[in-house]
Amino acid sequence: MAPGVDICRSARDGLLALSKHEVIWSSTDIGTGLAITPSHRYNPKLNAGGSGGAWERINLEFDIGQQRSIFHRDMSWYYLGTYECVDTGTIGLSKLRQLNKTVEDTLYKDTVLFPDLVPPFLRNMVPAMYSVDVLKFAYMAIRRVGFNHDLYQMLLKNGSNNVGTRIAIPGKAGTKPIKRPVSDNKNEGGGRKKARK
After folding, report:
1. Which letter does DSSP use for residue 186 in this model?
2. CB-CB contact of 27 with 2 (8 Å)
3. pLDDT by residue (tens digit) across 88-97?
4. Does a structural domain hold residue 99?
5. Which of 80, 45, 79, 60 is nearest to 11 (CA)?
6. For residues 183 and 159, what is the distance between their CA atoms, to the nearest angstrom?
7. Count of the separate structural domains present in the chain
8. Among candidates 41, 22, 36, which has minimal Cα distance to 118?
């Protein structure tokens, strides 16, 4: 698998949003992937016993056998299709050595919430904690099982605020997205009219 394509961790509505730094897609297509995220995050705003911060476990809310409509963010949002979770668990960095540097750095940063409130020595310890598997990544293996054509057509038809919504066409990883045309009322009917004085 090659580094690919941000996980929005709320999958309660049957939707799951993924970002390019938290998914490793198959090198052959976007039909299978491995979504990865820190299994724990340090939150300096949690007050565990008055210490001023605590570690919290991240729940991906996507169990084996469940299906979700997957959206992917890479500058714009893309609808990829309906995916099923086929495996979940935790994995150490030593087993994920093929991560590219940008993905790895993003996962390290995601491990600490509100980094301005955390001492630099703690932020700087995160990579070392991953390298010896004290901290691990939560993962879910996903595979595409369908494509919701009604949802796709609705997204094409109803862009938000008349801004083009780029949506990927299902297929191979190299498939180019299409951009929904945006109507420009000021150019209809022969151009703009001059304001009267």
Report:
1. G
2. yes
3. 999 888 887 6
4. yes
5. 60
6. 11
7. 1
8. 41
**What gap in Å lies between CA 62 and CA 66, rounded to an integer?**
6
Residue 137 CA to residue 38 CA, distance in Å, equals 4
Amino acid sitting at position 127: P
Contact (CB, 8 A) for 44 and 53? yes
Convert the pLDDT of each residue in 39-92 to its tens digit.
Answer: 999 998 887 566 678 889 987 778 899 988 887 777 777 788 889 999 999 988
Nearest to 142 by CA among 46, 3, 24, 59: 24
- Contacts of residue 125, Cβ cutoff 8 Å, sequence gap at least 6: none
Tokens of 196: 């009267």
What gap in Å lies between CA 31 and CA 1, rounded to an integer? 12
Residue 168 amino acid letter: A
- Measured CA to CA, the distance from residue 188 to residue 101 in angstroms comes to 48
Of 179, 35, 15, 10, nearest to 81 by C-alpha is 15
Within a domain: residue 85?
yes
Q: Which domain holds residue 37?
A: 2-179
Count of CB atoms situated within 10 Å of the CB of 38: 22
Dihedral over Cα of 38, 42, 43, 46: its sign: positive
Would residue 101 count as lying in a domain? yes
Query: What is the value of pTM for the model shown?
Result: 0.65
**DSSP designation for 5:** -
| Domain membership flag for residue 185 | no
